[in-house]
Design brief:
Elements (H helix, E strand, L loop, with lengths): L1 E3 L12 E7 H6 L2 H24 L12 E2 L1 E5 L6 E6 L14 E8 L4 E6 L11 E2 L1 E2 L2 H7 L13 H13 L7 E4 L3 E4 L4 H12 L5 E3 L3
């Protein structure tokens, strides 16, 4: 596999304002159903990160941590709202993703570029991504019918989110489930963990062989 250099000029992983709304334990203690869902989904996120680490598409970055994230939608049993569970940004390589490494995202304000979240510990902060750090030739992606973003953008910025939204607007889900962000990596969307794992095995694992050592 070919490795691309670290493109970020610094080591900052979070580029938006964070507002912690207490611990996940407080959130789950009064909701047994939500706690069971949380533990089940956190286990699947851990499995997702482990798969990417084993296949080398979530490489070890210069700070010794894994470059890659996973997230899933959590249906709240006590309301009609939905939230996100997001894996910790910067998990140490070859260590399992623990349930305490998962953040509960309450909301993300695009206007103020800020995120409200709950975590097990105050120093665990979320990032807003689901991707692996492996890429492929643009021409090959066209041949495979995989959409590619028009330009490279720095992670976690407004421009980065807008570029992803542009991709989804031009190539909507569920007609398209695999996307390539230029010099950033792949994104997979699916209805559940099993579908995402199958898409990864069948469409991504053997095609995206250029590893990107960046956020």
């Amino acid at each position: 596999m070919n490795y691309l250099p670290l493109s970020s000029p610094d080591s900052k992983r979070i580029l938006f304002t964070l507002d912690r709304k207490g611990s996940i334990d407080q959130l789950l203690s009064s909701n047994p159903t939500l706690k069971l869902q949380y533990e089940d989904y956190a286990s699947k996120l851990s499995q997702s990160i482990k798969i990417m680490e084993q296949d080398g598409v979530a490489p070890i970055l210069p700070d010794g941590k894994t470059g890659g994230n996973a997230c899933c939608i959590l249906e709240l049993p006590f309301s009609n709202n939905k939230s996100l569970l997001v894996s910790k940004s910067g998990k140490f390589s070859n260590f399992p993703l623990l349930t305490t490494d998962v953040c509960f995202i309450h909301s993300f304000d695009l206007q103020n570029w800020s995120c409200e979240f709950s975590s097990s510990f105050e120093d665990i902060k979320p990032s807003f991504a689901m991707h692996g750090h492996a890429s492929a030739n643009d021409r090959d992606c066209v041949k495979w019918n995989i959409p590619v973003s028009d330009k490279e953008t720095r992670f976690s910025t407004r421009e980065d989110v807008q570029e992803m939204l542009n991709l989804l607007e031009k190539w909507p889900y569920p007609e398209y489930k695999v996307f390539l962000r230029k010099k950033h990596g792949f994104f997979i969307l699916g209805q559940n963990a099993q579908e995402v794992f199958e898409i990864y095995e069948n469409q991504v694992k053997t095609k995206f062989t250029e590893i990107i050592n960046s956020e």
